[in-house]
Design a protein that fits this description.
With about 375 residues, the chain is α+β, with helices and mostly antiparallel strands. The chain is about 30% helix and about 20% strand. The chain contains nine helices and 18 strands. Helix 2 (about 75-95) packs across helix 3 (about 120-135), helix 2 crosses helix 4 (about 145-155) and helix 6 (about 270-280) crosses helix 9. The chain starts with 6 loop residues before the first strand and ends with a helix.
């Protein structure tokens, strides 16, 4: 059955458009602006649905991977199946729910799957997608292998400043996924080049703060869904779909009391530069290193105060690595800029052109952080 023949069992209630104004004062933006937008409630509901189902798919694959008697670090087939399966599922759900002018900017395409020997992987992906998309009774569908290939390849859009574009990282943090640690399904919507909503499904993130290891949620529950709509704040709910709570970034004002996140993998960020910045701020707590945009989610609910990302020279940031996380943090009261203090620009296609790196914190700490970043970058450059 083709994607166009998907039959929705549960119908969503359409709400009338709501107009609102939101103003975000920031001395770190070259041109603070007033944003006027319609409500994106229908799109947000579709994004939450798609990301939640994709998380369920990824959980199933990771569980089987971790329980396997034979695990080879060189065997990337489990993450390949989950990665492509997640993208196919999200694409299929979004095209069913929001079919008009569908455009998806995503990390994967089917080129490798179409090579000799790829058919077995495609069949595994197809079975996984079909099992997952019907798992909660919302859809009655059977996708063919060709349907799945087409769904994956629908992510070839280049994005840009015109129209609406979904932005997806089907598994952000593949190394964390393989280790059994943190990863995220990250989905955002661009409208006119601006991020207007974002969803982060973080299957392994505890429901309670990761900054308080002595505090555990009942039964050590994990699995968080963060979601935000422009002007509407940021919310978190368990992945099982129970009630959501509004979250806010930390109110910490003293840099010495701040804690910071950075990438788990040293290859993804210059840890020595982050350490120098923390030293200048007087930060006493050691860095919290976790994979994926789960860092943005944890920051949005106040688990930490600062996120530093400084890729090695020559690396270009992709929009799907930050779009969802960026709005989740900013709608929770945070600030996201590059190292020069400029807001991230998602309107230029697949890549972000950032100065040196990305810094994230709250409004009160940003002046201190910005100065420490600027001084540290100068010192590092002078020492070379």
């Amino acid at each position: 059955m083709s994607l166009n023949c998907l039959r929705l069992v549960c119908h969503s209630i359409k709400k009338p458009p709501v107009f609102h104004l939101s103003y975000s004062p920031s001395s770190y933006s070259s041109s603070p602006a007033v944003l006027v937008s319609m409500s994106y409630s229908k799109e947000l509901a579709a994004a939450k649905k798609a990301a939640s189902l994709a998380a369920r798919l990824c959980q199933k694959v990771q569980k089987a991977l971790l329980q396997s008697d034979v695990q080879s670090k060189n065997d990337k087939s489990p993450v390949t199946v989950a990665d492509y399966g997640s993208q196919a599922l999200v694409s299929s759900v979004l095209q069913q729910e929001i079919p008009a002018d569908f455009s998806l900017v995503a990390e994967e395409d089917s080129k490798d799957l179409r090579k000799d020997g790829g058919q077995e992987i495609v069949e595994r992906i197809t079975k996984l997608v079909n099992d997952s998309i019907t798992s909660d009774g919302s859809y009655n569908v059977t996708l063919s292998t060709e349907d799945v290939i087409k769904a994956i390849d629908s992510g070839r859009s280049e994005g840009g400043s015109q129209g609406r574009h979904w932005v997806l990282d089907p598994i952000d943090g593949t190394k964390g996924f393989l280790r059994g640690d943190q990863y995220a399904i990250a989905l955002a919507l661009l409208d006119g080049g601006k991020v207007v909503l974002g969803v982060l499904a973080c299957p392994n993130l505890p429901l309670t703060s990761i900054s308080a290891p002595d505090q555990h949620s009942p039964n050590n529950e994990v699995g968080c869904l963060f979601f935000a709509e422009v002007g509407g704040g940021t919310y978190m709910q368990p992945l099982d779909g129970s009630s959501a709570v509004k979250v806010q970034v930390t109110a910490v004002e003293n840099p010495e009391e701040a804690s910071f996140f950075e990438s788990y993998e040293a290859a993804h960020s210059m840890h020595d530069l982050s350490s120098l910045i923390a030293q200048k701020l007087g930060v006493k707590a050691p860095p919290v290193r976790i994979d994926s945009q789960a860092k943005y989610g944890a920051l949005s609910r106040g688990d930490g105060a600062i996120y530093l990302r400084f890729p090695h020279k020559g690396y270009r940031e992709k929009i799907w690595d930050h779009a969802a996380g960026c709005i989740v943090v900013t709608e929770a009261g945070g600030v996201v800029t590059d190292a020069a203090g400029k807001p991230l620009d998602f309107s230029r296609g697949n890549y972000l052109d950032v100065d040196t790196g990305i810094i994230v914190t709250n409004q009160k700490l940003m002046p201190f952080l910005f100065n420490a970043v600027r001084e540290s970058i100068k010192e590092k450059a002078a020492s070379l």
